[in-house]
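Competence/damage-inducible protein A
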Amino acid sequence: MEVALLTVGDELLAGDTENTNASWLGRQLTEAGASVTRVLTVPDDEAVIADAVAQYHDAFDAVIVTGGIGGTPDDITKAAVARAFGRDLVVPDDVRAHLEAKAERFADDNPELVDRYDMDLDLDAWASVPEGGQALLTDESFAAGCVIDRVYVLPGIPEELKAMYETVADEFDGDRTTETIHTPAPEGALVTHITAAREQFAVAVGSYPRKDDTPGRVKITGDDPATVADAAAWLRERIEVVDIE
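Predicted structure tokens:
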């Protein structure tokens, strides 16, 4: 299963916010056996988002889009996804009712905050989804995410993203398996063995340099667990290895 990640936000491109969502999703999907083969960050621009969604939808098994699904003027991701499919945004009655009840509970639980600030909540924007899409709702997120034809639209706030991803996590799987070897050896000392392992076992082998006090990593990835295990064993016999708890 090949997955593309599309992260949305001017703040990501400007470096104001670190893009932890992409790395977190990459780990989750890889552990599930899927292959993340594209990661793209785009601005809060409806046309740019729509174009990227349309291209990735045609090219990959699934697309995950994160960010820009709230109720402020720059939250245009759901409108852009609707545009990519040539559909309108709609407001399902049950989703709006759910969010209206949630807003009322918030007001009851936070009277001082509501009294202090003029809360302008556009419930229609929070509840909207592309026509034909399935709304995704969680306790952590006020805005509704959605799924439409293998495109998953999730929040940008990390805790909200993680909670909503868990509602669809079972839909991502694959045959990819990975094994990691830790080594104190510099990358230059690994080239010959990595090249030979790739050729002999037909697996992907990547090396990643040590960082701070942690050793370097050699990562073996393939579609057959037995072949990956054989390649890892072969490499362990030829490079210096350290155990990491």
